[in-house]
Amino acid sequence: NCYGKNTEEPTFSDRKANPYSHLFKYIMVGDSAVGKSNLLLQFVDKRFSPNSDFTIGVEFGSRSINIDNNQVKLQIWDTAGQEKFRSITRAYYRGAVGALIVYDITRRETFEGLANWLTDCRKYSSTDVTIVLVGNKCDLEASRQVSYAEASSFANEHGLLFFETSAKTGSNVDEAFEQTAKIIFERTKNNPQ
Ligand code: GDP
Ligand code: MG
Q1: What is the Å distance from ligand 2's center to 77 Cα?
Q2: I need a labelling partner for 103 at 20 to 30 A (CA). Which of 35, 83, 157, 184 fits?
Q3: 77 with 60: CB under 8 angstroms?
Q4: Block mean pLDDT (10 aa), the chain, length 193
Q5: DSSP state at residue 99
Q6: What is the ipTM of this complex?
Q7: Which is it for strands 130-136 and 70-77: parallel, antiparallel or unpaired?
Q8: Sequential DSSP letters for 16-55
């Protein structure tokens, strides 16, 4: 019951040495500056960074949550700015059971770019990766360029979960990560990988 194994990461395969019954690898993708690193920071640490250079150096974070009395550790990988150079490696995707594809509701072009990220997630992650579409920066309602309805229908069409979040206020951030985890948990508990 140790999911999301990756050769570059600890495998936690020894149950006695490790209190987690499940380990899920999550990845975050999406265009630059949509708020990926801040979603991670908010979920893991309940913090927000107004600094746009925050991305540099961030690689991953983890937090454990409780699902049906099981301790589930979410190990969340961040692009660390690699998306700027379109140089995300296949190792980044490999073994991911959850993926957050993030756009910025105030920048239409980040929504237009979703299809490419979706293709890569489906191609390089685990075959049954659970993907959640995340429209971030919903605190900036006055600058909105992508409606909830449009994004929601995109999500339906492609079989994705969908949340609008704010990494700044924390709105819906826990929900986006935790709902995904519950679905992965349900999917894998009777069918270990
Ligand atoms: P990344 O490149 O996708 O990792 O994006 P960052 O997390 O570095 O965020 C890019 C910029 O957007 C930073 O200046 C953040 O402070 C800002 N930002 C991120 N999330 C939000 C949000 O939910 N609301 C607002 N108002 N700003 C945000
Ligand atoms: Mg970043």
Answers
A1: 10
A2: 184
A3: yes
A4: 36 50 92 93 90 62 94 91 76 94 98 94 92 98 98 97 97 97 89 55
A5: E
A6: 0.99
A7: unpaired
A8: GG---SEEEEEEEE-STTSSHHHHHHHHHHS-----TTTT
Q: Would you tell me how many other CB atoms lie within 10 Å of the CB of residue 156? A: 11
Give the single-character DSSP code of 64: E
Q: What is the DSSP letter of 4?
A: S
Coil, helix or strand at residue 90: helix
> Residues with beta carbon inside 6 Å of ligand 1?
32-38, 49-50, 52, 54-55, 136-137, 139-140, 166-168
Helix axes 173-189, 36-45, angle to 10 degrees: 80
Identity (one letter) of the amino acid at 180? Answer: T
